[in-house]
Amino acid sequence: MTIRTDPVTGDGPTPGRPDEVTLVRLRWWHLDHVAELERDIFAEDAWTAELFWSELAHRETRHYLAAMRGGRIVGYGGLAVHDDESYVQTVGVSADARGNGVGTRLLVALLRHARMRGAHRCDLEVRTDNSTAQALYQRLGFVNLGVRKGYYQPSGADAYVMSARRIDSHDYGELLDAVESTVSR
User: Fold this and answer.
1) Which among 80, 72, 30, 76 has a CA at the least distance from the CA of 53?
2) Residue-level pLDDT at 183
3) Biggest CA pair distance of the chain
4) Which DSSP string do the residues of 83-104 spell out, in sequence order?
5) What is the pLDDT of residues 148-167, one digit of tens each?
6) Quick one: CA dihedral 79, 67, 154, 58, positive or negative?
7) What is d(CA 34, CA 77) in angstroms, rounded to the nearest whole number?
8) Which residue among 44, 98, 155, 185 is least packed, with the fewest CB closer than 10 Å?
9) Cα 27 from Cα 10, distance rounded (Å)
């Protein structure tokens, strides 16, 4: 599978092969599908469509993307940026699209946006039992800062707090290029 990235203008995916994944700005008309996918991925800890609506309403501080394949959303991710700090709000990839670089491309695109907005660091939480996501975050320079007990609700699952510093540096930009090139082949 190849992955193409739209300039994220919100105009929708550019035409391509049916197996290509294109990143587009998440819009209100995507939210029912995203909420359904969110329930499939995160079960009882899933965000509601209303929460996604609320996130999109914060246009100045939020940046959300959808990964589209064959006219269907197969992943999504969101970022908050305040001053020189950024925070990955959520990343989700459908079961049938995992292992194909969709999550990596979403996260790299979010981190590039954070850099463009002047962020010096990025933080996130990840379930302590999600070793696949933790490995991706570590590849992108995130380090574990500690545990938040019972962070995910209503399940009560614990989360690691992870942070990537100096994301505005030239070296970090090269790291993003290197990681992205592993899924662009």
Assistant:
1) 30
2) 86
3) 45
4) TTEEEEEEEEE-GGGTTTTHHH
5) 999 999 999 999 999 999 99
6) positive
7) 10
8) 185
9) 8
